[in-house]
Write a structure and sequence with these properties.
Layout lengths: L10 H16 L6 E5 L13 E7 L9 H5 L4 E3 L10 E6 L11 E2 L13 E9 L3 H15 L1 H14 L7 H26 L8
Parallel strand pairs: 2-6, 3-5
Antiparallel strand pairs: 1-2, 3-4, 4-6
Helix pairs in contact: 3-5, 4-5
Length: 203
C-alpha cells in the first residue's frame, strides 16, 4: 500500500472540534483533557486525512474505563496494541462503515486489521494518563514542529519521500518515520519544559 498524503486542509480543525465535543460527552465522567496532535494539527503540514486526538485521563488505572463508552458508540478498540503500549488505549473512529468488512468492536492480539479499513477512518484516539511522559512527548513534539519551521519543512520532505514507496501497512510507514520523530522529540521535550508557560494552544 501507498500512503496518501493531502496538503494541509483547514477543515481538519473543524473535524477535530466536532470529535472533541463528542469525546467530551462520552467520557465526561472522567473529565478528560483533549488535544489535537499529529500532522493534521500543524498548519501547513501535509498529512493523511485522519485526525489524531490525545485524550488524557487523571490516572492510569482509569484507561480501561474508556473502553465501554466508546465501543458502545461505534469506536473500534485495538486491544492488540496493549501489550506493546500498556500505557495507552487506542481507538479508531470511522467516517463510513465498509460494506464488505465485518467489523468487530475489539481487535485482539492475533486479529488481522484489513488495510482497506484505512480509507474509512476519520480519527485515531490515543488515551493516556494526563501529564505522563507519553502525554508530554506528544504535546512537546506538536508545539516544537509548530514553532520551528525548518524542522516542519524537514518533516514534510521526509513524509513526501516515504509516501512514494510501497508499505505493508500503516505501521510500517510509521516505523520509517520513527528515527526522525524520536530525534526531534528529545529536543522538543527539553525545549517545551523551558518554554511551556509561554506557549499557547493557538498558532
Amino acid at each position: 500500500m501507498k500512503v496518501q498524503l493531502e496538503i494541509y486542509n483547514p477543515k481538519w480543525q473543524n473535524w477535530y472540534h466536532n470529535i472533541q465535543k463528542e469525546l467530551s460527552e462520552q467520557l465526561q465522567i472522567l473529565n478528560p483533557i483533549i488535544e489535537h496532535i499529529g500532522s493534521t494539527a500543524v498548519l501547513g503540514l501535509s498529512a493523511k486525512p485522519i485526525i489524531d486526538i490525545l485524550v488524557g485521563v487523571p490516572k492510569q488505572f482509569e484507561l480501561d474505563e474508556c473502553i465501554e463508552p466508546l465501543t458502545n458508540k461505534g469506536y473500534l478498540f485495538y486491544k492488540k496494541y496493549n501489550s506493546i503500549m500498556p500505557y495507552r488505549r487506542f481507538f479508531v473512529m470511522l467516517q463510513t462503515k465498509p460494506e464488505n468488512i465485518i467489523l468487530p468492536s475489539v481487535y485482539y492480539e492475533n486479529d488481522v486489521i484489513p488495510n482497506e479499513l484505512n480509507k474509512h477512518k476519520l480519527a485515531h484516539i490515543h488515551i493516556l494518563e494526563h501529564n505522563s511522559y507519553h502525554w508530554l512527548r506528544h504535546i512537546a513534539f506538536r508545539e516544537y514542529i509548530r514553532k520551528h519551521c525548518e524542522v516542519k519543512n524537514e518533516y514534510q520532505k521526509i513524509k513526501m519521500q516515504l509516501s512514494t514507496k510501497e508499505w505493508k501497512d500503516g505501521n510500517e510507514y510509521n516505523a520509517a518515520k520513527n528515527d526522525f520523530i524520536k530525534m526531534v522529540e528529545e529536543k522538543a521535550i527539553v525545549w517545551f519544559k523551558k518554554n511551556s508557560e509561554d506557549i499557547g494552544s493557538e498558532w
